[in-house]
Design a protein that fits this description.
With about 270 residues, the chain is an alpha+beta fold. It has 2 domains: about 220 residues, outer membrane lipoprotein receptor (LolB), chain A (Clam), CATH 2.50.20; about 35 residues, no CATH class. About 30% of the residues lie in helices and about 40% in strands. Strands 1, 2, 3, 4, 5, 6, 7, 8, 9, 10, 11, 12 and 13 form a 13-stranded mixed β-sheet that branches. The longest helix is centred in the C-terminal third of the chain and has 20 residues. About 25% of the residues are buried.
Length: about 270
Amino acid sequence: MRHVLVAALALSLAASAAARDFEGVVESRITMKQKGEEDRGSGTMRLQVSAQGTRLETDMATPVGHMKMTILNLKARPGVSFAINEKTKSYTEMVIHAATGHGQEKPEKFTVKKLGHERIAGYDCVHALVTDEEGDQNDLWVTRELGGAETFWAAQMAEESQGGQRGRAMAKSLRDAGLDGWPLKVKTRPQNGGEVVWETVKVERRSLPSSLFSLSGYKKVEHGSAAMNQMEFSPEMQKKMDAAAKQREERMKKMSPEQRKQLEELMKSMKNGK
């Protein structure tokens, strides 16, 4: 599931960087596989882009259950993403911290090999294979037929970019190879031997209502609540979670008043980030 969240945030933030060059809807699909197993999850992503920001709606089916997630990024609130729960009309704030590398780290190097041209969602794309020093490989399909790519790649190479040192090194390698168009398909291979594929299936340019990019009518809730409430677990997983919750309750009952107070203080300090 982590790969879904990372892909969702990356896609939404990337589009935010070039919102002034494109307004409309980008529809994508995502599939996840694990080595030696069948499909570990699949679903759709609907990215809506305007000058106000981006709204990314993800709908995923996984072995543990079904997940719907909406992430809003607003130009007026840079550095913050909002996880929206439509059922409860609530949202949680997710502060985006740049992942920066340490100054003494060895700069990573990537080899880029062009493999030809393919059409993705009706756009001509260059297919490239990117390999790092350890042999890990990723496939990318990029196009120059959509505006805004220059702004997007500049954001990837900035010091405050979300990808950190590794992301900046990969972005530079792609730009040096002339592959600085919009990525419309990405295939990654996690260390578990699986595969995650994100692919654009439709791009539609059109005006969007401002209400899609507003938090009016939503209430703010504590971190995690809005996102978790959108997860519909399978009966088997829900049964395990209920059993675990019951065990926690039983352990709490057996605690002395002093132990309970210490636990409450610990949870409070963790909540406050201390």
